Amino acid sequence: MEFIWIDFLNSIWRDWRGTGKPSRDRLLEAEWRASFLNKWELESGLDLNEEDFKHLTQLRAFLSRVTESVASGGDVDEKDILLLNDYLQQSPVVRELVKSEDGWRLVFSTTQKGWSRVIEAIVTSFIHSLIEGHLSRVKICDNKDCLWVFYDATKNHSKRYCDDKMCGNLMKVRRFRERKKQQKK
Ligand SMILES: [Zn+2]
């Protein structure tokens, strides 16, 4: 399962192999932004000014904090709810009656444009994850150099790494080496 807010949190690239490369904020990379907007069918070709960047990084820090808290057994607290409601209030909703082949529908959409629309989409996606109970399945990769956020779709919620072939394997090798070192002592 894919969620825009999880993709958004993963806009920070970290050197998961732990070779000492500095992490990269891909929000600052035009190519990453273009593919992100394209994937989620949002307005393409948006420029990013300093103000937009500030708002996006604020949202990312907030959602990262909540995700960390939930992933380590905590909950979304009162303060978080207030902040989420603040975001909701910043984006007015327009309702439209639509008749389609399946019948009548009331369609909700936002009047926001540009990055405000992107922020609205991210916040709404997060809130849906919360309402639908998906949040408890969201995890942070157990490799401390990686910290990739992912949705654990396994039956018993047992996934520890973003990718078993990459981080999973790396950690296995590290544990193996660690054991060997211990044995030599
Ligand atoms: Zn990982």
Hetero compounds:
zinc ion
Largest sheet: 2 strands, antiparallel
CATH superfamily of the domain at 4-89 and 119-160: Jann2411-like domain
**Oligomeric form:** single chain
Q: What is the CATH C-level name of the domain at 4-89 and 119-160?
A: Mainly Alpha
- Shape assignment: globular
C-alpha Rg (nearest Å):
20 Å
Q: Can you tell me the residue ranges where pLDDT is under 50 for at least 5 consecutive residues?
A: none
Strands of the widest sheet, in order across it, are 1-2
Tell how many strands the DSSP assignment holds. Answer: 6
Give the fraction of residues assigned to helices.
40-55%
The H-and-E topology, N to C, reads as HEEHHHEEHEEH
CATH topology of the domain at 4-89 and 119-160: Jann2411-like fold
Strand content: 5-15%
Indicate the structural class.
alpha+beta
First and last CA, distance: 46 Å
Mean pLDDT: 94
Helix count, DSSP H or I runs of 4 or more residues: 6
CATH architecture descriptor of the domain at 4-89 and 119-160: Orthogonal Bundle
Description of the structure:
There is one protein chain. The protein has 185 residues and is of the alpha+beta class. The protein has a domain at 4-89 and 119-160: Jann2411-like domain (Jann2411-like fold). 48% of the residues lie in helices and 14% in strands. It has helices at residues 4-9, 30-39, 50-71, 78-89, 114-131, 164-184, and strands at residues 12-13, 24-25, 93-100, 103-110, 138-140, 149-151. The strands form three sheets. The chain has a two-stranded antiparallel ribbon. Strands 3-4 form a two-stranded antiparallel ribbon. Strand 3 (93-100) and strand 4 (103-110) form a beta hairpin. The radius of gyration is 20 Å and the shape is globular. The mean pLDDT is 94.
